[in-house]
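Tokens in:
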């Protein structure tokens, strides 16, 4: 890209970032109590919560990790998106309504708090273990987002990855700190439109490039080898089963266990807003997932394997190669939007885990609502700085980092939520043991040779579900009290 083109892109990104900061400043000027700061005070419209949940759910993983993965694997990469889409359908059509009702019934603000109040005799243990685990895994998840920021800026400007990570990291911290859940949801809403636009424009540009150069999609995919031209990757038997199970296992992480997503369900006001949100969320996902898949496949046809040093940067490379600078700036803003929306939501998860679940509830420290908001803002700043440091120190691979966090939090707590919602015999002891099991399973399985056969995303969910059922039957609650 020439200097003038780079200047146009930078200018558009600066305008976008300035707009995000304005949203944070707007809500910072409002008198927010902790209900507003943590869950929006049930004042947000369903369509905005749907856009926010979708923008949060599709992070740097979708734009960089997933597109890069499909680019290198070919048609069989569709099973990852299929597993995720099925999970999203289930979460919005089945779980969202239950979350909305349970939140009002128990008057809670966080996923951890909800689990804790369902088991009063084990509430503090649940709060401590859940919060510690969420902080650990989501700090890694946050670091993956910051890495995505640095990579994206470097891809078109040559800006040092460290510098880019720090600059955008501080901006994310700033607007998350100022407005909490309210500012995060409204910035997410803007960001989701950019993400939608990106996955409409880029595949269209890729298709026209293929047509203009007289390329054959089937021929080029066949030339890639390794079953890239086959929907099942050329695999059969057990190998095929393992591949499908591993890729579809992303489904399990969408079953209510991701606190940054469940909070959007918890913030829904009524069934009317829920129906609107369901329509928006499912429609948005269909467009984005089809666009992401086509983008990756078209990229594989246009750019031979090995021509791009980092496969996770294929989308930015494609954007700058095929689109004029003013359009590229919009698309890159969309990529940054995906990263920033997820990072800001993860910051809030870490913050509420520490300030609300540990300091306020587990430790029983009483304080004014405004004081709790101030402490939460300090936690946002501290957690964000730690995430930046880890990102710079690890040089993380986005796909692996997100997959690891998905197993440790999403799959562990999805098993717990399903047990609580749909099995009355679930016990407090069963929940505590399941939390610990999920934490250990995600780590040990990920570093073992078994990860190459079946992903920790699948194994963690299944192990947690089995452990939760077994322990609850063996150690039932003698007197099950609920608030």
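Residues out:
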């Amino acid at each position: 890209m020439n200097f003038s083109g780079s200047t146009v892109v930078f200018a558009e990104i600066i305008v976008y970032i300035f707009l995000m900061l304005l949203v944070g400043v707007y809500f910072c000027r409002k008198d927010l109590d902790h209900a507003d700061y943590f869950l929006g005070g049930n004042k947000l419209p369903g369509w905005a919560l749907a856009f926010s949940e979708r923008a949060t759910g599709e992070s740097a993983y979708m734009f960089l990790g997933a597109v890069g993965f499909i680019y290198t694997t070919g048609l069989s990469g569709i099973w990852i998106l299929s597993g995720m889409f099925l999970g999203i359908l289930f979460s919005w059509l089945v779980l969202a309504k239950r979350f909305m009702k349970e939140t009002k019934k128990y008057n809670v603000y966080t996923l951890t708090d909800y689990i804790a109040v369902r088991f009063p005799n084990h509430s503090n243990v649940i709060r401590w273990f859940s919060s510690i685990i969420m902080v650990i895994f989501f700090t890694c998840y946050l670091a993956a987002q910051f890495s995505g920021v640095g990579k994206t800026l470097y891809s078109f400007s040559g800006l040092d990855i460290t510098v880019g990570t720090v600059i955008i990291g501080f901006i994310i911290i700033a607007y998350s700190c100022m407005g909490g859940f309210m500012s995060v949801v409204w910035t997410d809403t803007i960001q989701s439109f950019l993400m939608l636009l990106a996955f409409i424009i880029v595949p269209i540009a890729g298709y026209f490039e293929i047509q203009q150069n007289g390329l054959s999609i089937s021929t080029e995919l066949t030339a890639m080898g390794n079953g890239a031209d086959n929907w099942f990757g050329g695999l059969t038997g057990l190998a095929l089963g393992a591949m499908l199970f591993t890729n579809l296992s992303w489904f399990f992480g969408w079953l209510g266990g991701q606190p940054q997503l469940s909070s959007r369900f918890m913030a829904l006001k009524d069934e009317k807003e829920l129906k609107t949100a369901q329509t928006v969320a499912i429609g948005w996902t269909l467009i984005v997932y089809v666009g992401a898949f086509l983008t990756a496949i078209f990229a594989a046809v246009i750019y031979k394997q090995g021509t791009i040093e980092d496969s996770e940067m294929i989308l930015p490379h494609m954007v700058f190669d095929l689109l004029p600078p003013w359009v590229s700036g919009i698309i890159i803003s969309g990529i940054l939007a995906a990263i920033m929306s997820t990072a800001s939501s993860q910051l809030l998860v870490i913050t509420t885990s520490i300030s609300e679940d540990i300091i306020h509830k587990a430790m029983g420290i009483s304080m004014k609502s405004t004081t709790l908001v101030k402490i939460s803002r300090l936690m946002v700043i501290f957690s964000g700085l730690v995430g930046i440091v880890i990102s710079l120190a690890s040089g993380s691979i986005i796909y692996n980092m997100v997959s690891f966090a998905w197993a440790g939090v999403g799959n562990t707590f999805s098993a717990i939520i399903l047990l609580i919602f749909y099995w009355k015999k679930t016990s407090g002891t069963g929940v505590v043991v399941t939390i610990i099991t999920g934490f250990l399973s995600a780590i040990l399985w990920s570093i073992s040779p078994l990860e190459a056969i079946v992903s920790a995303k699948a194994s963690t969910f299944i192990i947690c579900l089995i452990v939760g059922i077994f322990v609850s039957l063996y150690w039932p609650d003698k007197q099950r009290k609920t608030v």
